[in-house]
Amino acid sequence: MKLKPMILTKKQTKALDRLEDNKTSEVIFGGGVAGGKSALGVYWIIKCCLKYPGSRALMGRAVLKTLKDTTLNSFYDVCKLQGIKAGQHYVYNAQSNIITFSNGSAIYLKDLFQYPSDVNFDELGSLEISFAFIDECNQITEKAWNIVKSRIRYKLTEFNIIPKMLGTCNPAKGYVYNNFYKPTKDGTISESKAFIQSLIQDNPYISEHYIQSLQSLDKFSKERLLFGNWEYDDNDNALIQYDKIIDLFTNEHIPNGKGYISADIARFGKDKTLIMVWSGFRVIEIHKLSNKATNEVAAYIKHLAKKHSIPYSQIICDEDGVGSGVVDYGFKGFVNNSKALTGNYINLKSECYYKLAELINEAGVWVITEDVTIKKELTEELEWVQRHNADKDGKLAVLPKDKVKEHLGRSPDISDALMMRMWFELKKFDFVVM
To answer: Is the whole model's pTM more than 0.85, yes or no?
Structure first.
């Protein structure tokens, strides 16, 4: 069957043009509520399935139940508008979560949350699809996005098409901001990617009463959902600018320099020991160690010191807890709650984090790694480098580690290792303190 002409907004038409060209593989559409995101996604998927008999599509979201309660309803709405009838033109199997069209094409409904029991998405391993639509893609991980992208290979040559993937979302910080919004804003996005902002103001079919109700939202929600502001920051206490955190991984202008090692030592057997090797303000190696005794950790640090010709006086380790056992091997010790070296800080840790924030905001650090997990976790940890009790008079402090762990669900080991490197910079000026 042929689809009826669909009334689309100008922004939806622009996105559909990119989805149907021969050079764009990834499209992000959205940036505010009621911009027609889900409607565009299901319309495009339906159109592809009818155009290419026997094709396979993925329609996903972070949680399958939410997909069925929301995106699937948009599918039914578009089908009704197009005169596509259940039982005649398609069949939906709620047990297998597959929509099968009369021409043999199929849409697989998928849960894309990164569960601890399947962190590598092995459940998707045997899946082969021709195109994919992920609704509210900011709610899934970058790894999930990339895994789905890698599965788009089914009958591409036969259909004479390139891999195509559509994600829709509202503004949020994360991989969509980093890989699509920011490069579009900077004019550096590649031809194979597209970001198209769609706001409620771009949709002429939305009730004025709904827009008025959005005006009553809190400032943070209104900036995101009504105005599509990707640069929002609901936390005035954040010490590090988000864009500067992202720049950490691309600051290639940072020169090589004197070698250092900073290490956050695992406590209680749950956290991981995190070791960073530095050349000036370049982090040139990052090592994670699990379930290692203090002598094993010390031996590993000594190996790295020998490899990079770093003297023990330029190695610093967290001395709290079991870390003291590593420091005993001749390295410098870092005690988080010890007295600050300079200035009006509540402790050494706060002082070093303030110094780190200053350096990162000045684009003064380069973290060299291709590890997606390291990038993601370090970004999240640095977002939680925040002023603590900022409304009170007294010494400067950062949010305590137990509070950060509550938000992250884990220890901020990577950022702590990064922070300890600042001790060597501050030590140069500790003579100022009387």
So the answer is: no
